[in-house]
Amino acid sequence: MAYSGRSSLSKAQVLEIIRDRILYLDLKPGTAILDTDLAFKLDVSRTPVREALLFLKEEKLIDIYPQSGTFVSLLDISLIREISFIRHVLECEILLGLIDKKAKLTSGIDRCIYLQELAVKDGNLKEYVKNDHLFHEELFDIAGHRRTWELIESQYVHTTRFHMLDFYNSKTVFATSLNEHKEIIQCIKSGDKNELKKLLDIHHDCALRTADSLKEKYPNFFI
Predict the structure, then answer these.
(1) Is residue 5 part of a domain?
(2) Residue 135: inside a domain
(3) Do the beta carbons of residue 99 and residue 191 sit within 8 Å?
(4) 174 and 91 in a common domain
(5) pLDDT tens, 66-81?
(6) What pTM was estimated for this model as a whole?
(7) 119/171 Cα distance (integer angstroms)
(8) In terms of domains, do 53 and 110 share one?
(9) Smallest Cα–Cα separation from 24: which of 159, 123, 114?
(10) Which contacts (CB < 8 Å, 24+ apart) does range 27-30 have?
(11) Which of 5, 52, 101, 217 is deepest in the core (most CB within 10 A)?
(12) Using N-to-C axis directions, what is the helix angle for 11-23 and 35-42, rounded to 10°?
């Protein structure tokens, strides 16, 4: 069936939809992608789809091989570890700074926790991860470092797929993450720097403790 022209999706929306399908594992690592197929499903022309795929190639979420095809990029554990380490160093300093400043947490934090609780209750991994990101973004914003978060987020997309796979593989990880968020907030409120440092070491998991078991279970998803 040809493109009907019924869709009113903008180029930005097409990009967001395809990126989300990659990040939240609707399109799994290694999956072959046809621009004609995506265009049909989104009811748009091939042009915005092709432009989106080229942009996602720059983000290293898509691999394009001439004469072979277009594929969702595989998970690169070494890259994810580096990104996690950078995020850990920055976020530790920023959250410890919130204690020094005796900063008041906003209602946005409570809302993120509430939405995460609903996501855990409903078993909705996608909504949990989205609100996980919003939770950390809100903390950076409270500390006056929104631009720092935006810099991290541009690379943090690579960790999103790993976390989705980790949560999907074990629901205990899902619930544990929420409890750690609550404990982080309590440490900031009580001014307990030592406990906060310990929590962030665990929460950020720079070593990616489950990487080996996930690679063994899903070998085709990894480089």
Answers:
(1) no
(2) yes
(3) yes
(4) yes
(5) 889 999 999 999 999 9
(6) 0.88
(7) 12
(8) no
(9) 159
(10) 27/72, 28/72, 28/221, 29/72, 29/73, 29/74, 29/75, 29/161, 29/220, 29/221, 29/222, 30/71, 30/72, 30/74, 30/220, 30/221
(11) 52
(12) 110
